[in-house]
Design goal:
609 residues; globular; 7-stranded mixed sheet; PLD_domain; alpha+beta; EC 3.1.4.4; hydrolase; Endonuclease, Chain A; lipid degradation; phospholipase D activity; single chain
Length: 609
């Protein structure tokens, strides 16, 4: 939901609410900001009868010159020194009041005479009967909060058992509960059609077994591809996820009738889907879909960033059911066939997928509502559409990339140049790993940075204490993930706060392989304010979390700052006290920070409560 305050002495507050995150911006264009130290932020929660000043992150060095891990401050004395700010601690479907107090003077003699700017907001509900419910896990095992709560211990090492459950619940937020609810709603006579790459999460497997026991017809297509190998060091690697998937089916006691197909053909490509379709009753009407980026694994639910997307739309469900049917026969090439036969079978599979439904010619042709896109398919039309959508953003574009920035994206974004800065959108890239030169690459490295209006953040954590920030851990060290440990979600945002927002979300990694080779699914969602606001606020939460850590990684010399010049290596760990107000200069018209504020001030549909 979108909100705006009344103007107070030239200031207006804009807010976008998701389920658990609220993103704010302060419109300061008509205000007198001379001498502004920042904003003290007070939050009032009428539901729980709480009123307090929110905690601050940075401190004034003249007040606290040597902060340490025990330092705790609020914005009452150490304000938010920014015109954009986020509250990551909100609860679903709740009314809040926020008061932003402009502070002037000196850190040891603060002038609090300016009246506060009040904004009233309401967060999105979590579980509804609406068309879309969206569930993000916490996705930040590498955090101060996990250290404070659980001491950076692996969940499986925590005692007593209740503490382990608390850690897992904190990490998953409500993603696991949403998965369970989707399965539990199916009753005798209904069908659940599932298609999974990884099927290694016992709580979900048990829920599906319980569904079978109460008369639900469960039919699963699971990855069963043989890819065992011995690496260059002589270590043997069993087929993954085939062996784990088979072991989980046995452990959960799922009957043979529940396995519609072990997906084995096209052995060199990934059966990368993570979806379920609910087909209701005797009429066998496709009704609802669960999809997104979440693998059915402990790391998928509790570790790396992921999203589950629940869609209540009969047309979408019918499309997913039809796609499921094409996979049920295990289409594609068989190991040992001739190249000609294999190529013909792969083409037949792509043709069958492409025949399910037409796709938009470009992003401008995406229909209002929800459009489903399935892979594999021939050509680059779909990937080109994603690239063009991001590059064509008017004010804001955001994307998560678990496996790097593809050549097509770089070719487009490298022209998003500083020369056109006042007119060009600001683009945010959230990456699993830093984008940096590969010494084995055959082509020159193309950096994307501030001169291209691009911010980058990547998976990282604080390896050592840093003033008031303590040492952190990550999902790999916690035993949750082995490969992708930070950013596994796959979604794209084009002007999410505009009147015509576009969100793309699903299982595909915005790559050639995910378009042409793998079994994948994506949702193209146009015009849904609820969807756009939830994805936008969660993207902010994740990006801001990792951006700070990415900057510190560069400053500590662990990363090449030249590979990401958008990381502000001059950013101080303390609040600005300079007479020249250096922090305000970063918001001059045309700068990236100014553009971030403009995204809010231009947003459509903001209301005042």
């Amino acid at each position: 939901m979108r909100f705006v305050s009344n103007e107070v002495e030239g200031y207006r507050i804009f807010a976008v609410t998701g389920v658990n995150t609220i993103s704010f911006a302060v419109d300061y264009q008509n205000a007198d900001t001379k001498g502004l130290l920042g904003f003290a932020v007070e939050r009032h929660d009428p539901t729980e009868n709480q009123r307090y000043f929110v905690y601050g992150m940075k401190v004034f060095a003249s007040v606290i010159p040597q902060p340490d891990e025990k330092t705790v401050v609020t914005t009452y004395d150490h304000p938010v020194q920014s015109f954009v700010w986020d509250d990551f601690t909100a609860k679903p479907d709740r009314r809040y009041e926020y008061l932003f107090y402009p502070l002037k003077g000196k850190p040891k003699n603060i002038d609090r005479s300016a009246p506060p700017v009040k904004i009233v907001v309401r967060t999105e509900p979590l579980f509804t009967e609406l068309e879309h419910d969206i569930f993000f896990n916490r996705g930040v095992a590498s955090s101060q909060a996990y250290q404070r709560r659980f001491g950076n211990e692996r969940p499986d090492d925590l005692q007593p058992a209740q503490k382990r459950l608390e850690a897992l619940q904190w990490l998953s937020r409500d993603l696991d509960e949403a998965l369970f609810r989707f399965i539990d709603q199916a009753q005798a006579g209904d069908r659940l059609l599932g298609c999974f790459y990884e099927f290694r999460y016992l709580p979900v497997a048990k829920r599906l077994k319980a569904a079978v026991d109460r008369g639900v017809v469960v039919k699963l297509i699971l990855d069963g591809k043989i890819n065992e190998h011995t690496d260059s060091k002589g270590k043997f690697h069993p087929s993954f996820p085939r062996e784990d998937n088979r072991a989980m089916v046995e452990e959960a006691g799922l009957p043979a009738t529940a396995i519609a197909r072990w997906r084995e053909n096209n052995p060199n490509n990934i059966q990368h889907n993570k979806f379920m379709v609910l087909v209701r009753g005797a009429a066998q009407k496709p009704a609802e879909v669960w999809t997104g980026s979440t693998n059915m694994s402990p790391g998928g639910v509790h570790g790396q960033t992921n999203v589950g997307h629940w869609v209540r739309n009969a047309d979408v469900a019918a499309a997913f059911e039809a796609y499921w049917r094409t996979l049920e026969s295990d289409p594609g090439a068989v190991e040992g066939e001739t190249r000609a036969v294999s190529d013909a079978k792969r083409k037949a599979h792509r043709d069958a997928v492409m025949a399910l439904a037409p796709i938009p010619a470009d992003w401008e042709d995406i229909a209002k509502g929800v459009t489903s896109v399935f892979s594999p398919r021939s050509g680059s039309k779909v990937l080109d559409m994603y690239v063009d959508a991001l590059d064509s953003a008017t004010d804001y574009g955001g994307i998560t990339l678990a496996f790097g920035i593809g050549k097509k994206f770089k070719t487009a974004l490298v022209n998003n140049t500083e020369a056109e800065m006042p007119q060009r959108p600001v683009i945010f890239l959230l990456l699993e790993k830093q984008d940096k030169p590969n010494p084995r690459a055959s082509e020159p490295f193309v950096p994307l940075n501030a001169k291209h209006n691009v911010y980058q953040a990547w998976g990282s954590f604080l390896r050592d204490p840093l003033y008031q920030w303590t040492r952190e851990t990550n999902a790999r060290a916690l035993g949750l993930n082995q490969h992708v440990a930070y950013v596994h979600s796959k979604f794209l945002l084009k002007d999410p706060l505009g009147a015509d927002p576009i969100v793309v979300s699903g299982s595909a990694n915005f790559s050639e392989a995910s378009t042409n080779d793998n079994d994948e699914n994506m949702l193209l969602i146009r015009g849904s304010e609820r969807v756009a606001d939830i994805y936008f606020t969660e993207f902010n939460r994740l990006f801001n979390h990792y951006y700070f850590r990415s900057i510190q990684e560069v400053m500590a010399g662990r990363s090449d700052g030249q590979a990401n010049a958008s990381a502000d290596t001059s950013a101080s760990l303390f609040l600005d006290e300079s007479e020249t107000q250096e922090w305000l200069k970063k918001y001059r018209p045309g700068t990236l920070r100014w553009k971030r504020v403009q995204v809010f001030t231009k947003m459509a549909g903001a209301k005042t409560l």
